[in-house]
Design brief:
353 residues, alpha/beta, Rossmann fold, 10-stranded mixed sheet, binds guanosine-5'-triphosphate, binds magnesium ion
C-alpha cells in the first residue's frame, strides 16, 4: 500500500511550460554565484538578479537585473532591505509570474540578501511556484553577520519548500593564506560549479544528476547541506565532506544523500562504488540511500560534492540567541522585521495631558 504521495518535479513541469524554471540571485554573493551558474547548461531557463546595491548588478551573465532602491543610504539592515522590497513587490512578483520552479540563491548575514531573499521566496510561493532556496552562510569569523544570518535563515526556510545550506567555513579554512579577493572569487566559482552539477549541468563524459533527482533527494521542510571537497583520493574527499556535515548537524538525521564525483578519465568504477558505499555507511543509521553522478572531465578544484538532507536543525540556528531563549509558545512575533517607508514629519504630534 502506498502510504505517502510525494510531489515530484513532473507535477510542476508539463511539456508546454518549459521556460518556467527560474533562477534568482539576491545580494552581492547571490548575484555573483547565480551569474556563474547561468554559464552552465542546467535545467534553469531564465535568470534574474535582484539587489539594493547597483554595483551587484554590473557585469552579470545571461539574465535580467532588478534594482530595488534602498529606503535610506545611511543604514544597512535586513529590515530596511525588506521594506525596500515591499515597496517594489509588484515588480518582483511580475518576474516570478507563472514560474513553476524558483531557485533563489543568496548569501545570508548582510542586509540585502537577508532582507530580500525571504520576501522573494514568499512572493514566489504566492504564485504557487515550487521554491528552492540556496543560502550561503557566513564564516564563523564574520561575527557581525552571524546573528542576522541565523534569523534570516529561519525566515528563508519558512518560505521555501526546500532549503539548501552551504557553509563558507568549509572553504575558507583551506585557503586562509591567500588574498581575500581571490578567495571570494574561488569560493563563488566552486559553489556555482557544485550547484550547476546537482542542478543537472553535464558535459560529454558525464553521468549526470537531473534537477528532479536533486529535488527528490532534498527533504521538504528539513535542511539540506551541500558540501564540497577536493582531496586527491576519492575516499578522503568523501570523508572530508562527511566531516563537514558532522560539524553542522546531527548526521543520524540524514534521510537521503546525493554524491557527485569529479575525476579524470581514469576514474575507476571501484572508486565510485566504494565512495557511494562509504557515504551510505557514514550517514543516517548507516544505510542511507545514495544517488550518484560523476564527471570525468577533470575539474581539478573539486573532487566530491555531497548533498545530504533531513536535518531538523543546523549549528547556524544557534547564532540566533533570542530564538534559543524563547521557546515556540512564548514567541511574541516570528515574522521578519520590516521597515516602513513613512514620512513621519507629516504626522501631527499628539499633546500629552
Ligand atoms: N562566495 C562569495 N561570498 C561572498 C561574496 N561576497 C560576499 N560573500 C559572503 O556572502 C554573505 C553575505 O554577504 P553579501 O552577499 O555581501 O551581503 P548582501 O546581501 O549583498 O548585503 P550587504 O552586506 O548589505 O551588501 C557573507 O557571508 C559574505 O562573506 C563573494 O563575492 N563570493
Ligand atoms: Mg552586498
Amino acid at each position: 500500500m502506498v502510504r505517502e504521495y510525494t510531489l515530484t518535479l513532473k507535477h510542476y513541469i508539463t511539456e508546454d511550460n518549459s521556460n518556467k524554471i527560474i533562477g534568482v540571485g539576491v545580494g552581492s554573493a547571490g548575484c555573483k554565484i547565480a551569474s556563474k551558474i547561468s554559464s552552465f547548461k542546467t535545467g534553469i531557463n531564465r535568470f534574474y538578479y535582484i539587489s539594493c546595491d547597483e554595483n551587484d548588478l554590473i557585469g552579470l551573465n545571461n539574465g535580467e537585473t532588478l534594482y530595488i532602491p534602498p529606503l535610506t543610504s545611511t543604514k544597512r539592515e535586513p529590515s530596511l532591505a525588506r521594506g525596500a522590497g515591499m515597496r517594489h513587490r509588484d515588480k518582483i512578483s511580475r518576474i516570478l509570474r507563472d514560474s513553476k520552479v524558483t531557485l533563489i540563491i543568496t548569501g545570508l548575514g548582510g542586509a540585502v540578501g537577508s532582507g530580500l531573499a525571504p520576501l522573494i521566496a514568499e512572493l514566489a510561493k504566492e504564485q504557487n511556484s515550487l521554491v528552492l532556496g540556496v543560502a550561503v552562510m557566513p564564516s564563523s569569523y564574520e561575527h557581525s553577520k552571524l546573528f542576522y544570518s541565523s534569523v534570516a535563515l529561519r525566515h528563508f526556510r519558512s518560505s521555501c519548500d526546500y532549503t539548501i545550506v552551504i557553509d563558507k567555513d568549509d572553504f575558507t579554512q583551506s585557503m586562509s593564506d591567500r588574498p581575500i579577493i581571490e578567495v571570494y572569487e574561488e569560493i563563488s566559482e566552486r559553489i556555482s560549479f557544485a550547484l550547476s552539477r546537482v542542478l543537472g549541468a553535464f558535459e560529454k563524459e558525464d553521468y549526470y544528476i537531473s534537477l528532479s533527482k536533486f529535488i527528490t533527494t532534498s527533504i521538504k521542510d528539513r535542511f539540506t547541506l551541500l558540501t564540497v571537497s577536493n582531496r586527491s583520493n576519492m575516499m578522503d574527499a568523501v570523508s572530508e565532506a562527511v566531516a563537514s556535515i558532522y560539524r553542522k548537524a546531527n548526521p543520524a538525521e540524514t534521510e537521503s544523500a546525493l554524491l557527485y564525483l569529479c575525476g579524470s578519465k581514469d576514474l575507476l568504477a571501484g572508486e565510485v562504488e566504494d565512495s557511494v558505499r562509504h557515504l551510505s555507511t557514514l550517514l543516517g543509521n548507516g544505510s542511507v540511500k545514495v544517488e550518484y553522478g560523476f564527471s570525468t572531465n577533470g575539474y581539478t578544484k573539486i573532487t566530491s560534492i555531497v548533498l545530504a538532507s533531513g536535518f531538523k536543525t543546523l549549528k547556524h540556528a544557534k547564532y540566533d540567541v533570542l530564538e534559543n531563549i524563547f521557546d515556540a509558545e512564548r514567541k511574541i512575533d516570528a515574522a521578519p522585521e520590516c521597515a516602513v517607508d513613512l514620512d513621519l514629519s507629516k504626522i501631527t504630534q499628539m499633546e500629552h495631558f
